[in-house]
Specification:
314 residues; 51% strand
Length: 314
């Protein structure tokens, strides 16, 4: 049950992170906000609570020189590695800390490097501490995704850094064959590249996206939802000061649904169970709430708690 809560909350938080990364940034509330350039954020925090457990995600992004980042990527024994087309890569990081009722603490880190101009995923690093610990490295190729995984082989190794873990697993996950109708495949953190279209034209539904998650590809669709009243209470930080945004707004909604393409050895892991919903401030658009159905636990709603915005002077 705890593992399902951890995995489900992380999927929803990654979805929200990707959404805020791809759509225009902004803020509105009880205090008026100055004009903010599109996607002008450097970090933000989301939080969810359920049955006494709390998940907090800190999302950060930065631009890095391609020449400095590429040498750290692992090689794939199969496939032709996807290549960068620009001098800079985008690094999107999501760190999730889960405080479980009873005192247990789980931390999950997700770092994706991708070409922001071609929207091409190149390398993914995932680490989990406190529950079924692992350290995963993913290399994206034209034919599939290679994963190199380390786990602690003994209880004694658990206290050591991932480089000291000795249980090694390697696998190559080929992309679906045949007429799958997939556009270029994305990684979970890149989802919703068409969210801005839906926000400006609620009658339009984004075409299906093909998203690689953990070990297989899913077809993901986004649909507009009727507006609902959403309250918000978050801290906005800027270089020239900070302000608490508090209020209620008629928020636009979008629903995300997914279905797997083929299966992995006959097994399927759902990406979005019974759909997830996102609610935006129509003046931003800024995601104010994200909800998703989790196995056993039920529906969890995450709220924006803090965001750091850049200004034209930075």
């Amino acid at each position: 049950m705890r593992g399902a809560f951890v995995r489900g909350v992380c999927r929803c938080l990654l979805c929200a992170a990707a959404l805020l990364f791809t759509v225009a940034g902004g803020a509105a509330g009880a205090a008026p906000a100055a004009e903010v350039p599109a996607s002008a954020w450097s970090s933000f925090t989301l939080q969810a609570s359920r049955f006494g457990s709390t998940a907090t995600a800190v999302v950060e992004r930065q631009m890095l020189p391609t020449a400095a980042a590429i040498p750290a990527f692992i090689e794939s024994p199969r496939g032709r590695p996807l290549e960068a087309t620009s001098a800079e890569l985008q690094k999107l990081s999501v760190s999730v800390t889960l405080e479980i009722l009873g005192g247990r603490r789980v931390r999950i880190e997700n770092h994706l490097w991708f070409d922001p101009y071609a929207n091409t995923p190149l390398y993914l690093l995932r680490t989990r501490f406190g529950l079924d610990d692992y350290h995963q490295q993913f290399r994206f190729t034209r034919e599939g995704v290679f994963r190199y995984q380390r786990e602690p082989a003994t209880a004694g190794e658990t206290a050591k850094p991932p480089d000291a873990w000795t249980r090694i697993k390697q696998h190559f996950y080929p992309y679906p064959l045949g007429p799958s109708g997939c556009p270029p495949i994305l990684e979970t953190s890149q989802m919703i590249p068409l969210a801005e279209v839906i926000l400006t034209d609620p009658a339009a539904a984004a075409p299906p996206l093909c998203v690689f998650h953990k070990r297989q590809v899913h077809r993901v669709s986004v649909y507009p939802q009727p507006a609902r009243m959403v309250s918000f209470d978050y801290l906005e930080r800027r270089a020239d000061g900070e302000i608490q945004r508090v209020g209620t707004v008629s928020a636009r909604g979008a629903r995300i649904v997914s279905r797997p393409i083929e299966s992995y050895r006959g097994d399927v892991e759902e990406l979005f169970r019974d759909g997830s919903q996102l609610w935006f401030n129509p003046e931003g658009p800024l995601p104010l709430a994200v909800s998703g159905e989790l196995p056993v636990i039920g529906r969890v709603e995450m709220r924006l708690k803090e965001i750091r915005l850049k200004t034209s002077k930075e």
